[in-house]
Amino acid sequence: MELGKGTIDWLKLIKFAKKNLSVTDELSIIDLPRINGIAHNKSDKIKVNYSFYVENKTTPCLDGEISLNIYLTCQRCLEELPFSLDLSFSMAFVKNENQAEELSKHLEIYLFEDKELSLIDLISDEILLSIPMAPKHNLDCLSSFKENNNYEQVKEKPFAILKNIKKPM
Ligand SMILES: [Zn+2]
After folding, report:
1. What string of DSSP letters covers 10-36?
2. CA 53 – ligand 1 centroid, Å
3. CA of 16 to the centre of ligand 1 (A)
4. 130 φ, ψ (degrees, to nearest 5)
5. Which residues surround ligand 1, an ion (CB under 5 A)?
6. What are the beta bridge partners of residue 85?
7. Are 76 and 136 within 8 A, CB to CB?
8. 150 C-alpha vs ligand 1 centroid, how far in Å?
9. Ligand 1 midpoint to CA 81 (Å)
10. CB under 8 Å to 111, separation ≥6 — which residues?
11. 104 pLDDT more than 80
12. Residue 98: its pLDDT value, please?
């Protein structure tokens, strides 16, 4: 059963939850437009596990696990920067906010206002939340930093401050 690229309406969501449906799905990065836009490895796979269940007898919930390798752009040197992501989420779908108050705190609340839920959007949101806003290399980038002489400038600063302090009043 393929879930990933489709949408789910409220009735289907209830049905999946009551059945405790569990599905493993494989997508490509290219299937997720917002992720595709920032990734270098567009043809690589994304593995997703979905487990639907009912909480408090009425609320459909979804536990998801997402794993992928993604190559982003380092915001300092503009070279590729690999990330290996294994993330999970637990989400409760509600029709109104009052419903959310009775639910366990560990659940993210998804206000189901639209007619249909796009799993692609859901998965994209979770991935975007887990990657840094301005990704940068930790070590490799530092060596390219040195080559540009930027590192030297940073080192000189403390001395400049010291000189100012030592100036006679
Ligand atoms: Zn870098």
Report:
1. HHHHHHHHHHT-EEEEEEEGGGSHHHH
2. 42
3. 44
4. -95, -10
5. 74, 76-77, 137, 141
6. 68
7. yes
8. 14
9. 7
10. 94, 95, 96, 97, 100
11. yes
12. 85
Rounded to an integer, what is the distance from CA 18 to the centroid of its chain? 28
- 3: nearest Cα among 110, 134, 119: 119
43-59 confidence digits (pLDDT tens): 999 999 999 999 999 99
The answer to whether the CB of 68 falls within 8 A of the CB of 46 is: yes
Three-class DSSP labels, 116-143:
EEEHHHHHHHHHHHHCCCCCCCCCHHHH
- What's the 37 CA to ligand 1 centre distance in angstroms? 19
**Partner residues linked to 127 by β-bridges:** none
Digit-coded pLDDT (tens) for 132-142: 889 998 876 76
Both tokens assigned to 122: 């859901």
Centre of ligand 1 to C-alpha 80, Å, is 7
Q: Which residues lie below 8 Å from residue 30, measured CB to CB, with a gap of 6+?
A: 36, 42, 43
Burial class of residue 51 in the structure, from the number of CB atoms within 10 Å of its CB (0-12 exposed, 13-18 middle, 19+ buried): middle
**For 66-82, what is each residue's pLDDT tens digit?**
999 999 999 989 989 99
For the residues 96-111, what does the mean pLDDT come to?
Answer: 88
